[in-house]
């Protein structure tokens, strides 16, 4: 296991726990969807996994080391993060934003070369010199994905990509391409955890799912076909779901009638 969380509990305010007893394992070579209703603690879980905040209870291990004992430069080489929303001040160019993800030890020239290759992969090489802030939200998400890919290239094992709704602002064509790229990173050896509200994307692109309920507890963990079935989803989201199509082209959509809780 690349990244393992054991019995995590967390609260921003003592009277309002966000996560309760969450245990999860993220394997190298595997894409895990983190799914749950608003307020179930999905983003908080990613921040805990990154070591940005500390759990009230429990432990997180990256390989054989506790995350909070890994020096920040080493942690940054192994843990790449794609937040829900990104911003860049001072008019940085698209190329500069991607290059910022590189290990400073590789030097400025190699960082810019790597940035160029990642932008080409995302179809943004023609925008490299433009200010990041002038791009659309979907284009900015693609730039941030390119930065994460630059960050983990050549990273010591185990390495992990943590993505929080990385395609939410993208059009369908670019969202599909981005998820395919994320899956390719897993096949190359990364452990990937991705928060998704798009259940169809989770079922089509992810190997496993971690399902959180409204209390911040684990409602299910395992292969997507098991965790993302209509009964499990109804129990968590409170609406009926339909599972359509074949496993290769599955679609999971809410039904028109509300479910019972």
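Sequence proposed for the structure above (261 residues):
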């Amino acid at each position: 296991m690349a990244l393992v969380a054991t019995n995590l509990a967390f609260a921003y305010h003592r009277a309002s726990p966000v996560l309760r007893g969450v245990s999860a394992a993220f394997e190298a070579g595997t894409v895990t969807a983190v799914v749950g209703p608003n307020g179930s603690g999905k983003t908080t879980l990613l921040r805990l996994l990154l070591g940005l905040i500390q759990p009230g209870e429990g432990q997180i291990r990256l390989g054989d080391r506790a995350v909070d004992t890994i020096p920040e430069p080493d942690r940054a080489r192994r843990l790449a993060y794609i937040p829900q929303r990104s911003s860049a001040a001072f008019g940085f160019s698209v190329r500069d934003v991607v290059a910022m993800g590189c290990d400073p030890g590789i030097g400025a020239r190699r960082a810019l070369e790597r940035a160029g290759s990642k932008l080409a992969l995302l179809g943004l090489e023609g925008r490299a010199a433009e200010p990041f802030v002038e791009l659309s939200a979907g284009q900015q998400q693609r730039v941030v994905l390119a930065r994460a890919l630059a960050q983990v290239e050549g990273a010591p094992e185990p390495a992990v990509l943590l993505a929080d709704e990385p395609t939410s602002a993208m059009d369908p064509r670019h969202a599909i391409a981005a998820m395919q790229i994320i899956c390719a990173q897993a096949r190359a050896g990364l452990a990937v955890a991705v928060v998704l509200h798009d259940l169809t994307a989770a079922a089509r692109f992810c190997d496993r799912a971690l399902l959180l309920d409204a209390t911040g507890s684990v409602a299910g963990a395992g292969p997507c076909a098991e965790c993302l079935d209509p009964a499990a989803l109804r129990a968590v989201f409170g609406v009926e779901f339909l599972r359509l199509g074949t496993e290769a082209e599955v679609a999971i959509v809410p039904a028109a009638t509300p479910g019972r809780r």
